[in-house]
Amino acid sequence: MTGRNDPCWCGSGQKWKKCHFPQEDTHLLKENSFTKLKDEYSHKHEILIKDEKQIEGIRASCQLASRILDATCQMAKEGVTTQELNDFAHKLHLEAGAIPAPLHYGQPPFPKSICTSVNEVICHGIPDQTPLRKGDIVNIDVTCILNGYYGDCSRMVTIGEVNPERQLVVDVAYECLMRSIAILKPGIPISSVGSVIEEYAHSKKCSVVNQFVGHGVGVNFHEGPQIPHHRNKNQILFVPGMTFTIEPMINAGVREAVIDQKDQWTARTKDGKPSAQWEHTILITENGHEILTSWVRNLPK
């Protein structure tokens, strides 16, 4: 938590209480300060600082994405195909009046409504008729558009008992995510996220993918800033109103990914070893952070 006498997160060099500390009787000053900060981050960093109305919309979309994700993960069992998971998630989007953001996104257009990445697939796995098998690990990634706002999250599912190497990356990826979220508050540099993630992953003899990153999200599917999960030198400071994902991809072997030349989406580990990923959308608040996506790790059987 930022204390009143700590340096302000904006980098001015002043104490927080003398700079951006919220004052009940200085609403206009606070509003002017927000406008100035929003303009600065937009022009200097191409980062959209969200206002209260936008945050409300993003929060609602994130809550829906979490519910769809949890429901889809509960359906992921031995013998179920990833296409069946896709169709189920798509139906839930439509019932809620939402749009699945991945569908027809990008170039070439992504052909499905969710991503399902099994075993050695790092990310952007395309659902198909392949049934899940005992011992598989699968990442299910849901992004929905609700009333024009985006919510983005993913989590892992283990299909029955899995081997130690696969369980390792599942556990390490989750711990990397939660450790990196725990440090978030105004005034720390974006690079801090990658430092926390890579330090822990390496301590467990795992690698961190550096070809894919977290990203700003909310008004658009992919916004600034990029959030690298590996060590980096990004000194842009987190400030209130930033919304973004953290989604570390952790490999049991080398960190390099190979993109499928046929579908141009599926990213697999170069050495065929397993990979895992968990993802939250986060908001930076005046005093810390808020996890906007509310999925739970351990679902009831």
Can you summarize this structure?
By secondary structure, the protein is of the alpha+beta class. It has a single domain, classed as Creatinase/methionine aminopeptidase superfamily (Creatine Amidinohydrolase).
Describe the structure.
With 301 residues, this protein is of the alpha+beta class. The chain has one domain (48-291): Creatine Amidinohydrolase. The chain is built from 5 helices and 15 strands. It has helices spanning 27-45, 52-75, 82-95, 164-182, 191-203, and strands at residues 99-100, 115-118, 121-123, 137-146, 149-158, 207-208, 214-216, 223-227, 243-246, 249-251, 257-259, 267-269, 275-277, 280-284, 289-291. Strands 1, 2, 4 and 5 form a 4-stranded antiparallel beta sheet that branches. The chain has a 3-stranded antiparallel beta sheet with strand order 3-12-11, with no helix packed on it. The longest helix has 24 residues, at 52-75. The protein is globular and about 60 Å long.
CATH architecture: Alpha-Beta Complex
Overall structural domain count: 1
Q: What is the first-to-last residue Cα distance?
A: 36 Å
- CATH homologous superfamily? Creatinase/methionine aminopeptidase superfamily
Shape: globular
Strand content: 15-25%
* CATH first level: Alpha Beta
* Low-confidence spans: none
